[in-house]
Write a structure and sequence with these properties.
This protein is an alpha+beta fold and about 150 residues long. It is about 30% helix and about 35% strand. It has a seven-stranded mixed β-sheet with strand order 1-2-3-4-5-7-6, sandwiched between helices. A hairpin with an 8-residue loop joins strand 3 and strand 4. It is globular and about 40 Å long. The N and C termini lie far apart (about 35 Å).
């Protein structure tokens, strides 16, 4: 079972920060064979959604209000440990991320920069591709937007 929490940068423990950065590096740099600057100065401004299993971080996203990364609220650094992907934790953390943005930021339009091979995954959560494909750190990406019905009614 995945235990999910949402924390500001200052609320993260040293161990959580270390484990989060280790997971991101393990997947984005090593597994995806992509040399890029993961520690980009934006973690201090983000909310951090942490998925733990048996007290170990196995899933993670970082969240921004509109203007924090894109004009819209956003979800980034979406990651699930390779050995934990079979359990559907990616879906769990995306659902929790959308809810956290709506609850904490009261924003209902969310933009992501999705790796192209994950388009169908994000479409299952209401995200729609916008614009043209582009390369980010050598990996094909596409912008995607999700607008919840709650945002359309306000």
């Amino acid at each position: 079972m995945l235990s999910i929490s949402v924390k500001t940068f200052d609320e993260l423990s040293r161990d959580e920060l270390y484990d989060m950065l280790q997971l991101r590096s393990e997947v984005f740099v090593v597994e995806q064979d992509c040399v890029y600057q993961d520690i980009d100065g934006k973690d201090r401004k983000a909310l951090h959604l942490i998925g733990k299993k048996e007290d170990r971080i196995v899933a993670y996203t970082r969240l921004f209000p509109g203007g924090g990364y894109f004009e819209e609220a956003s979800i980034g650094r979406v990651v699930v440990h390779g050995k934990e992907r079979e359990y559907g934790y990616g879906h769990d953390i995306i659902e929790a991320s959308v809810k956290a943005i709506e609850d904490r930021f009261e924003e209902f339009r969310i933009k992501i920069s999705a790796q192209k091979y994950l388009i169908r995954f994000y479409e299952k959560h209401g995200f729609v591709p916008v614009g043209k494909e582009y390369l980010e750190d050598g990996i094909p990406h596409i912008a995607m937007i999700r607008e919840s019905s709650a945002g359309k009614n306000s």
